[in-house]
Design brief:
By secondary structure, the chain is mostly beta strands. Strands 11, 12, 15, 16, 17, 18 and 20 form a seven-stranded antiparallel sheet that branches.
Length: 336
């Protein structure tokens, strides 16, 4: 959800694991089946030049509060973590902008990673030797890079050999701008926008022979696998693994009414799932969802995304030889 604070500048009342084969004796992580806004001044006070007074506003990324997203990419890779911050004002009104975010394991200064804001950059990813396998907070002055409306922030690998490995999340843009009030959050969604879900048995699969589709009562879901022991449990009779444990599951939504949607993902978590996280790509934007715990059937939140028309949400299990899982994918309207 986007958060907004509104402070007039100068006001003294500022508000301010290794992939496992799992399954007990089997593989793929499958256990055996059991038999505000504070002190807001909304007056139209202006400076001598006719512009409203400067205000400090804090705008959060659409997935703020969700899990940190991992990056593991070699030098020169075009792999990116992509985040979106909506509702920024006309850049002509913005005096300065500071990007802040949480990080994890960003421990190689001047090498760890690169950051782009609306294509401008790259900026060095803030890193600290003390952040080895620890949390940190990064801050970058990105004044002059913002655009009106939706802003895109990308994180990629740096010069670190053999690869950059870190996690990022909880992005905020703190701007000082000539605005009468900080931007409002998204309004209510179109009443024609409704919650929709697609189940695993309705999805389309590439390399279907590497996917087990279970249909036993209480255990209805799909997962990528390579063990022959799962052949009897594939209710489609199409599982015939080639040993790569790779493929994709494509969840298609046609004629989506334009709106901002929360993307919900239900899957079966087990301790031997993909340690890099299952890669879910929503309308071209990928994020990792960790499933390697003992929570069993779990609903995870991918985040929010503006969607319209024909939309594909893809579980991409082609990146690692590890097991990913899915039961259903749901889109729920949350704003316009």
């Amino acid at each position: 959800m986007t958060s907004f604070s509104d402070t007039t500048v100068g006001d003294t009342n500022d508000t301010a694991e290794t992939p496992g084969d799992g399954d007990g004796d089997g593989d793929d992580g499958e256990p055996d089946l059991p038999s505000d806004t504070a002190d807001e001044d909304t007056s139209e006070t202006t400076t001598d030049g006719g512009l409203p007074e400067l205000r400090e506003c804090v705008l959060q990324s659409t997935d703020y509060g969700g899990p940190l997203q991992p990056l593991d990419a070699p030098v020169g890779s075009d792999v990116r973590l992509i985040f979106e911050v909506p509702s920024l004002p006309d850049p002509a009104l913005v005096e300065d902008a500071i990007l802040t975010f949480d990080s994890y394991d960003a421990d190689h200064p001047n090498q760890e990673g690169m950051v782009w804001v609306n294509g401008a950059g790259p900026y060095d990813l803030p890193a600290n030797l003390d952040w080895d396998n620890m949390s940190g907070t990064g801050s970058i002055d990105v004044s002059g890079t913002t655009i009106a409306g939706l802003n895109t922030i990308e994180f990629g690998p740096g010069t670190l050999e053999p690869a950059s490995v870190y996690q990022i999340g909880n992005l905020q843009l703190t701007i000082t701008a000539h605005v009468e009030a900080c931007p409002d959050g998204p309004g209510p969604p179109d009443p024609n926008a409704i919650a929709r879900e697609v189940w695993y048995h309705e999805a389309n699969y590439t390399k279907r022979h590497n996917w087990v589709l279970r249909c036993a009562p209480g255990f209805e879901y799909a997962f990528s696998a390579y063990g022959d022991e799962h052949i009897p449990s594939d209710c489609g009779g199409l599982y015939n693994p080639d040993g790569s444990r790779t493929g994709t599951a494509i969840f298609h939504f046609d004629d989506v009414v334009p709106a901002t949607y929360e993307i919900q993902l239900r899957s079966r978590h087990t301790v031997n799932r993909n340690p890099m996280g299952a890669l879910f790509v929503v309308d071209g934007v990928g994020k990792r969802i960790f499933q390697n715990d003992d929570q069993d059937f779990t609903t995870d939140i991918w985040g929010n995304k503006a969607l319209s028309g024909d939309v594909d949400i893809v579980l991409d299990s082609t990146m690692e030889n590890a097991s990913d899982s899915v039961q259903w994918v749901k889109i729920v309207p949350v704003g316009n």
